[in-house]
Amino acid sequence: MSRAIVGKILITLGFLFLYRILAYIPIPGVDLAEIKAFFDNNSGNALGLFNMFSGNAVSRLSIISLGIMPYITASIVMELLAATFPNLAKMKKERDGMQKYMQIVRYATIFITIIQAVSVSFGLRSIGTGPNGAIMIDMQTFLIIAVFSMLTGTMLLMWIGEQITQRGVGNGISLIIFGGIVSGIPAAIGGTFNLANTGEINFLVLIAIFAIVLATVFVIIYVELAERRIPVSYARKVIMQNQNKRIMNYIPIKLNLSGVIPPIFASALLVFPSTILQASSNPTIQAIADFLSPNGYAYNILMFLLVIFFAYFYSSIVFNSKDIADNLKRQGGYIPGMRPGEGTSSFLNSVAGNLTFWGSLYLALISTLPWILVKGMGVPFYFGGTAVLIVVQVAIDTMRKIEAQVYMNKYKTLSAVGF
Q1: pLDDT over 70 for what percent of the chain?
Q2: ATP-binding as a keyword (predicted)?
Q3: pLDDT for the residue numbered 178
Q4: Sign of the C-alpha dihedral, residues 307, 165, 178, 252?
Q5: Mean of pLDDT values over 171-186
Q6: 227-231 and 233-234: which strand pairing?
Q7: Which domain holds residue 87?
Q8: Residue 176 to residue 263: CA distance in whole angstroms
Q9: How confident is the model at residue 54 (pLDDT cuts 50, 70, 90)?
């Protein structure tokens, strides 16, 4: 492995290490013991899920307790607006317009972060036995400190994600979520074995849980590597002109075109309102928040439907059959039996639509089925396929990008020194 690739991997690990350090910096003026006790009692609802995605930063009320979710929520809103308004979609495709687009996403992230920070600050008043709950200083002073701290933390996470994407290996935002989930795995394994040792979980149930997780991982790996290859032929003139270059003779279309984005988007949309609702002490609002608990059927039904919706939505963005057909026609290639141009575009759309149908069902089942199986066993902690799906998909995507970097360096070396 070349020095450049090792350097990129070290940069990525360094930024992820910085992210984990930030998770241990608490917001001043709070009673951390009261907050820890509160999260121990609410590990199975939306707050527990949010805490898992943040790498337990929420239970420590760190400056990054809101995590990267405000940025993801802002990205969802902008993607929906871009799909609705053609001018915004055109701006996103242009190089200079993309910078303006990302600037709007950042401003939207600031707005959402401030709303969530204020909601969390007022919600802390209902935690604990003190006059201001878990807040140990003046409420107005704490509100200013908390909003500034959480906003700074979220902006730092955005910067870390962008730096990993530009200078490291893999998608920075996905790796931040990956790091948060993975950081809680050792504690979850240890807690599960403690439950088995104390007799709260039967040893056979423990084996069954392990088998479910293992089967889920194997299914995810198998489907993520699955693709349909559409054969492509080229005119003899094109082949002769490019006889010293490799011309791809097929178009690969993945079964899961949208990747890890649908479950992340669905989780962000479900966690965002739940976080705000949990901050209220009103009985009716609390009842709605409990109704949307990740351990409830309503949450998982909504998750199932939202994952399917976002799978179709995001697939339509990442897979542009018209551009592929135009590029193929420009290069002198064609799909046997299909007319170049509109005929090829329609055929690719049909194939992508069929694959997206099965891919969306796969994502929705993986996101909900493990929870249903574990729920039937009476396991006293939250487990869903969303976390496993994100971890495995991000790991596969990162390994592919490292492999691509290795091959790229090999080609550069060969072109420099010759055979």
Answers
A1: 79
A2: no
A3: 84
A4: positive
A5: 82
A6: unpaired
A7: 3-417
A8: 15
A9: low
What single-letter amino acid sits at 216?
Answer: T
Indicate the residue type of 372.
I
- The enclosing domain of 64 has a CATH number of 1.10.3370.10
Which of 159, 88, 78, 145 lies closest to 111, judged by CA? 78
List own/partner pairs for 235-242 with CB under 8 A and 24 or more apart. Answer: 235/332, 235/333, 237/332, 238/331, 238/332, 238/333
Average pLDDT over residues 123-128: 75
Q: Tell me the residue type at 405.
A: Q
Q: In this structure, are residues 396 and 388 in contact, taking their beta carbons and an 8 Å threshold?
A: no
Whether residue 53 contacts residue 267, with contact meaning beta carbons closer than 8 Å, is answered with yes
- In 184-306, at which residue ranges do the beta strands (DSSP E only) sit? 227-231, 233-234, 250-254
186 close to 26: Cβ distance less than 8 angstroms: no
Q: How many domains does the chain have?
A: 1
Helix 261-278 and helix 342-376, axial crossing angle in degrees, nearest 10: 50
Say whether 191 sits in a helix, a strand or coil: helix
Q: Whole-angstrom Cα distance, residue 177 to residue 188?
A: 17
Residues 388 and 210: beta-carbon distance below 8 Å: no
Give the dihedral sign, CA 34/38/43/47: negative
Mean pLDDT of 332-343: 82
- The tokens describing 388, both together, are 């496993």
**Could you say which DSSP state residue 381 is in?**
S
Which residues on neighbouring strands pair with residue 133, listed in sequence order? 130
pLDDT in tens, 356-378: 999 999 888 888 876 776 666 65
